[in-house]
């Protein structure tokens, strides 16, 4: 039996004082109203909310004053995925928020004193006939066209990030998403040593995700193609968007770039033009032109070092601080550097501009493509 019904059983049949019921799920709430044939007065709250703490004893006292004619229930909105989704569905924007369900939802706008709470509850104590299906989406089982180990979840369950994982927004009935799921499963196997976390999918066909996908349907010119892949990294508050081709190798490289610490010793320092040209005759050299005050340069630094590790001995990585001295100033002027950071590759004394993504994967792949006998990855 559901937990909420266990609480009601204890309260009613064992005569224990139990005045405010705790929320378990939206479905259970409506089942409870039907089973008890009573309205339910709901308090939406958060533990950190000072106004919620002030209201708590008054809400409890009010529940003791209605002679079991109305059920008082509280939901801590951020406690579980179910409570997050419920509060989102209720349009909760601040705390505490009070509503009563009497066969339909009625907002409470009164004063937060015991007498006013009791009067409102008793004025709405009669439960009107209602159909549960009118208030929640009861999902019918969907026969998916392929089998995948990637667990389906709702958008509400992943909206706040949470534990480390890969989140993919897709449509399992489309071939592009089907292929992506297979590649993600392989990527998880390849990256298990440094990313031992699961993947979940937010499906377009799931009606609980309708609000999220509806935004793209009404703004098709802004809609990114499915599948969309995000990575919630350990210790990171914000999911990282993966924008490359969804292949096992590319995604594994992205995870490695995101999680593995850079080795700055692999990046050499510019000495002079003559030595740089000589080195370029031995191997391609990717040169980063930068300034210490440049924010974008600071952001690029770890990715540049990771690119050096990825490319290995086949490519040299050099950085030049343009304003450091007369030699570096003249060199950057000769290279016609107009902004920072600027990346250029020199091979056999010939320069090539780099305009790709500033990820370790893309920089390394670009440099390696100039190595004799190497293929583009």
UniProtKB/TrEMBL annotation:
The keyword Signal applies. CDD domains: PDI_a_family (cd02961). Keywords: Signal. Gene3D superfamilies: Glutaredoxin (3.40.30.10). Residues 1-127, 217-376 form the Thioredoxin domain. Residues 1-18 form the signal peptide. It holds the Pfam family Thioredoxin. InterPro entries: PDI, Thioredoxin-like_sf, Thioredoxin_domain. This is Protein disulfide-isomerase A6-like protein. It comes from Aduncisulcus paluster.
């Amino acid at each position: 039996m559901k937990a909420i019904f266990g609480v009601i059983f204890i309260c009613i049949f064992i005569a224990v004082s139990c005045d405010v019921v705790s929320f378990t799920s939206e479905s259970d709430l409506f089942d409870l109203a039907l089973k008890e044939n009573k309205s339910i007065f709901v308090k939406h709250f958060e533990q950190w909310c000072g106004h919620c703490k002030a209201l708590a004893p008054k809400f409890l006292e009010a529940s003791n004053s209605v002679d079991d004619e109305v059920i008082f229930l509280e939901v801590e909105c951020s406690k579980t995925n179910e409570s997050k989704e419920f509060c989102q569905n209720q349009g909760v924007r601040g705390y505490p928020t009070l509503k009563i369900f009497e066969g339909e939802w009625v907002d409470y706008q009164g004063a937060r004193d015991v007498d006013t709470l009791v009067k409102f509850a008793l004025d709405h104590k009669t439960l009107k006939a209602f159909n549960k299906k009118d208030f929640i989406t009861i999902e019918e089982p969907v026969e998916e066209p392929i089998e995948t180990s990637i667990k389906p979840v709702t958008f509400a369950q992943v909206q706040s990030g949470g534990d480390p994982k890969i989140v993919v927004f897709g449509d399992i009935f489309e071939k592009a998403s089907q292929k992506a799921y297979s590649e993600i499963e392989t990527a998880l196997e390849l990256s298990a040593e440094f990313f031992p976390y699961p993947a979940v999918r937010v499906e377009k066909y799931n009606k609980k995700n309708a609000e999220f996908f509806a935004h793209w349907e009404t703004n098709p010119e802004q809609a990114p193609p499915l599948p969309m892949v995000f990575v919630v990294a350990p210790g990171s508050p914000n999911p990282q968007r993966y924008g490359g081709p969804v292949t096992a190798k590319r995604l594994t490289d992205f995870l490695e770039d995101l999680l593995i610490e850079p080795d700055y010793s692999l990046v050499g320092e510019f000495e002079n033009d003559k030595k740089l040209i000589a080195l370029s005759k031995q191997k391609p050299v990717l040169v980063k032109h930068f300034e210490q005050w440049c924010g974008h340069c600071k952001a690029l630094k770890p990715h540049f070092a990771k690119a050096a590790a990825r490319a290995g001995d086949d490519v040299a990585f050099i950085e030049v601080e343009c304003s450091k001295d007369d030699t570096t100033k003249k060199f950057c002027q000769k290279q016609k550097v107009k902004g920072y950071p600027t990346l250029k590759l020199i091979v056999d004394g010939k320069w090539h501009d780099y305009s790709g993504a500033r990820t370790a994967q893309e920089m390394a792949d670009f440099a390696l493509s100039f190595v004799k006998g190497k293929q583009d990855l």
